[in-house]
Structure formats: structure tokens, C-alpha cells
From TrEMBL:
UniProt name for this protein: Tetracycline repressor protein
Gene it is expressed from: tetA
Cited SUPFAM superfamilies: MFS general substrate transporter (SSF103473)
Gene source species: Escherichia coli
Domain of life according to the entry: Bacteria
Amino acid sequence: MAFPIMVLLASGGIGMPALQAMLSRQVDEERQGQLQGSLAALTSLTSIVGPLLFTAIY
């Protein structure tokens, strides 16, 4: 059970920087800070809601 969880967590370390890179190319220089702040807020929100949700499910 631990190995599949480790694989999922490892892929998260690759996915977020790739997502940031792809999205930063879509936004002009003046809005980069807004984009990165929004992504950081979304990451924080999901790290709070995710454990609560999955605890309720399992």
C-alpha cells in the first residue's frame, strides 16, 4: 500500500512545476505574479481540503 502512495506523491513533485511552466508561458510579464500567487493559493487550499476529504471517504 505504501509503494503506490509514494509513486503518486513523487509524481506531484513533477506535475506542479510543469504546470507552472506551461501556464507562465500563457501569461504576459505583468501578470506573472498574479498567476504564481493564484497557483500557490490553490496548492495551499488543496493541501488543506484534500486530507479532510480523503479521511471522510476512507
